[in-house]
Amino acid sequence: MGRSAGKRLFDFADQNEVLDDPTVQRLILASAASENEYLSNLVEKTIIGKTVQQQQQPFDSRSTDGTLEIGETATGNQVQLSAEDLTKHLLAVGQSGAGKTTLFYTLVSQLEVPFWSFDVKQDYRHLISELDGLLVFPWTEFEFNPLVPPPAVPPRRWAQVFSEIFGHATSLLSGSKNYLFKSIIELYRLYDLFDECSPPYPSLHELEAVLASDNISYVRKTANYRDTVLNRVEAMNLGAGTIFDCSEGYSLEGLLQRDVVFEFDGLNRDVQNFLMEVLLAWVYEYRLAQTDRDTGLNHVFVLDEGKQVFSVYKERQDAAGIPAIDDLTARLREFGEALIVGDQEASKLTDSIKANTYTKLLLPTGDRKQFEAIAESLHLSNRQKSVAQQLDVGEAVLQTGNNDPVHVALHGFELAKQVTDAELQQMQGRYWTELSSTSRQRPSGFEDLVGLQNRDEEVISDPSQTFSLSEEAEQLLRDVVEYPFVGLTERYDQFSSPHIGYDAKTELADNGIVEEKRVQTRPKSSKLLELTKRGYSYVEDNLECDPEQKGRGGIVHRYWQHQVKKTFEDAGWPAELELFDADVYVNTGELEIVVEVAMQNTSREREHIENHLETGFDAIWVVCRNQDIREGLEDRVSKAGLDTQPVVFRETRDFEEN
Fold it and tell me: Residue 594's beta-bridge partner residues?
């Protein structure tokens, strides 16, 4: 009797989806043990009552503990997340306008650790008014060399990681990824990175040159691999503008200590995907090398368009292997790196991101397929699904771990979204100029080794694109040609407002006419505008001025050549550029001095010194970009056994105008 009554009550509770309720479980056990018909009827009534209650509100309404408040339950209890919850990652799915971005604003505004946001819609720049010290990078202001390994990471390992990430972002299959890996190893050898792993580093433009110079015999598969990889790298360099046009970009190690928004709006999808994935991989490899395990929450990534990185279609490409990004998802949590991921379409997200997120939120969805994809991941009952399908904007179903789902009314976040590009430049320009990077450098003989004697070294632009410039852009361009070493902020003074100057600069940059280069001076750095090959052509064809400039190398190198020349002239000593194969030649009437401006610590700079010593100049000045380069070149000269008596090492800061 007890067994059959207990089974009947068990089935009844199961059918009404209240079997998980602890009170119901205890009553069923008590009824089965006592074999009491009165108790059995009482249990049945309790089950009916619980069923009616769950039909009205089938979700848990208890408060949750944590430091990050996100909303309230229907009964007014606070719903909070803990830092520990975040280290296990968070996924929010809902249609456009459902409240995902507002939820993310709420979360990042309460974080006690730095975050990086990968923003493809210019949503997060508006947090400048709310978060002190927030750094926002439009992609045109970001400088990054993805071929530079994180500190303490061996070049060979980073070459493997880079190949996997680049392959995943650009849909390369295994054969092409292997070919890319071998090409990067060859490039690193050309730069002697396996011997000392020190600057200069090759950029993606040097990788493109190495790929293009590979005169492979056209065995079919090898040729296909080369052509496929070269096509992807060329497209990446073309689509990324000036992002990769550097030997060393901004210090990511330093940026990990700051709240940063990377704005990728305007870049093509492959470039966006690659940047997001390689930055994730860089941070993971950096943490791994630093052995920062199990130290609690250290840092947070925010991805509002998750399927760009966690694409189920790439996950299903058997020929490409398991994506490296899937492995990263699980491993990042070991180092206190949290992922906050949002998207509109759960069906297009990888199984990995859905399985490896401890906290999930379902917001209003307009498509049944997308609803079912996330509801299945939350293990919602039929009644819970029925309620969840009726969610309003600002409401969500939250589940942390294996806890019961909670119906949440999310907190709002009042934020005026009105920061324009010009306003962003005004508010953030001083932060951008405080960051340092170094221009691209190639080791001695690189051009000969890869057959580049007749190749263009500029960032690739599309020569077939036709365009015309506004009057303001042409005015700025003439100023760049006539006064090449004037800082960008000062150039804006010629216009009636800085906004007009900024728009003119943006127009020139967007059309591939100029590139921005940063020169380090005290008390802060400034930006120079350098003509591209396309810019030279435009000036020659459309403006009545000569674009040729005296000096050699890039704009930063030429800037310091002119500064050194001016310093000697101010002292009353005649000086000339590019005389006797020197950057600057000085003749005091009694002494002949040659000056070399050294932007990098390379064997080529040591060769210049040796050649000048053989010529017999009275003094050789070596003006170095910073102290590290000066000490490195001093060491090279000493180890080469050269006569150091006539050699004087200085730094560029000694030749600053102030």
Answer: 585, 620
| DSSP-derived pairing of the beta strands 68-72 and 406-410 | antiparallel
- The pLDDT-based confidence of 262 (bands split at 50, 70, 90) is very high
Sequence-distant (≥ 6) Cβ neighbours of residue 261 within 8 angstroms: 116, 117, 119, 124, 125, 127, 134, 135, 136, 137
- Domain span at residue 114 reads 70-142+258-414
pTM of the predicted structure, to 2 decimals = 0.67
User: Does residue 274 sit in the same domain as residue 126?
Assistant: yes
Element (H, E) at 587: strand 582-587
Confidence of residue 470 (pLDDT cuts 50, 70, 90): very high
Q: What is the 3-state secondary structure (H, E, C) of 515-549?
A: EEEEECCCCCCEEEEEECHHHHHHHHHHCCCCCCC
Mean pLDDT of 85-99: 91
**Within 10 A of 537 (CB to CB), how many other CB atoms are there?**
14
Rounded CA-CA distance 3/9 in Å is 10
Domain boundary pick from 10, 26, 56: 56
Q: Quick check: is 442 in a domain?
A: no
Residues 46 and 110 in one domain: no
- Does position 61 have pLDDT exceeding 80, yes or no? no
Domain end marker among 493, 520, 549: 549
Roughly what angle, to the nearest 10 degrees, separates helices 204-212 and 174-190?
110
- Are 113 and 151 found together in one domain? no
C-alpha–C-alpha distance, residues 339 and 308, integer Å: 14
Verify that 115 and 227 share a domain, yes or no. Answer: no
Instruction: Identify the H or E element spanning 362.
Output: strand 359-362
| C-beta neighbour count of 570 within 10 angstroms | 9
CATH of the domain at 283: 3.40.50.300
Quote the longest CA-to-CA distance of the chain. Answer: 120
Here the CATH number for the domain that contains residue 512 is 1.10.10.10
**Number of domains comprising the chain:** 5
